[in-house]
Amino acid sequence: MGLVLHPRRDCSPAVSRVVAWTSTHGVELLATADDVARLGLTDVTPVTGEELAASSDGLIALGGDGTLLGAMRLVAARPVPVLGVNFGRLGFLAEVEGPELDAALAAMAEGRATIESRACLVVRYGGEEHLAFNDAVLARVPGAGLVEATLAVSEQPYGHYKCDALILATPMGSTAYNYAAGGPVVSPGAAGVLVTPSAPLNGIARSLLLGPAEGLTLELTAGSPAAELDGVLFGRLEPGAVVEVSLRLDAGQLVRIEGSRAAARSRVKLSLLDLPVLPQELVELLPPEMRDRVTGDDT
């Protein structure tokens, strides 16, 4: 079993709980040598990132959605089940919250878990191939002009965009930047590619949902946008750049726990994002006795 840890957050207490489980189930626990050294982990075998991807029969991602997405990309060439455990702020993609880790491990040991497949975007540019399980985004850089690009679908001209950002999302990633830009929420059980412009000035102004076999090509006609994959910056594009995107089905595997409340929690989290208040202001809506426990106010 491999561990993928948040690069900055101290997840060592959770790692200790995983160690207690693996040590009683005859499972060797692996993590990158950097994580083992950074957190001073014991009873965890240090390996390289390549060894972690090649040797693990499953991964546990401790962190937020970014950590989970990184774990899925790590093993995309040889997909193995990934359990996402949320220690972040929102955690739309994680199956369980931190306090539920022990119960999730027990459920896995008892066979009360299933595996769901997930697709990823394959982004080809400059002779290189990159993967994104959530989204690929061309985002305007201040002073560098709007994002202007033409779109072709299955090699047929489709239209053009002029906007602040152009978002290509998987159904799983529909609740990320696509949602913030006004795009639809799509069931992760669906297949296809969402194309959503953010703050369009002209051209195509609505979201498109393309079929899973429809490859798309974007040719940048103006602007010098930043290119992000799953929120990670990988470069800048210049006019004339051509980006090809396709969908790879069954590129990842997510662990689902029987009786999990993950789907219900995600719906509540989405509704909270639409409230016209800051998260800390929600505390004021709680009954006084509960508000005191949350804020730690004993007065």
Structure overview:
23% of the residues lie in helices and 36% in strands. With 299 residues, the chain is an alpha+beta fold. Helix 1 runs parallel beside helix 5 (101-109). The mean pLDDT is 90. Strand 2, helix 2 and strand 3 (45-47) form a beta-alpha-beta unit. Strands 1, 4, 5, 6, 7, 8, 10, 11, 14, 16 and 19 form an eleven-stranded mixed sheet that branches. It has a six-stranded antiparallel sheet with strand order 15-13-12-9-17-18, with no helix packed on it. It has a two-stranded parallel ribbon with strand order 2-3. It has eight helices and 19 strands.
Any chance you could write out the topology, listing elements then pairs?
Elements: E1 2-5, H1 12-23, E2 30-32, H2 33-39, E3 45-47, H3 49-55, E4 59-63, H4 65-74, E5 81-86, E6 96-97, H5 101-109, E7 113-125, E8 128-132, E9 135-139, E10 147-153, E11 156-163, E12 165-169, H6 177-180, E13 193-198, E14 202-203, E15 208-210, E16 216-222, E17 226-229, E18 232-236, E19 242-257, H7 262-273, H8 288-295
Parallel strand pairs: 1-4, 2-3, 4-5, 5-6, 5-19
Antiparallel strand pairs: 7-8, 7-19, 9-12, 9-17, 10-11, 10-16, 11-14, 12-13, 13-15, 16-19, 17-18
Helix pairs in contact: 1-5
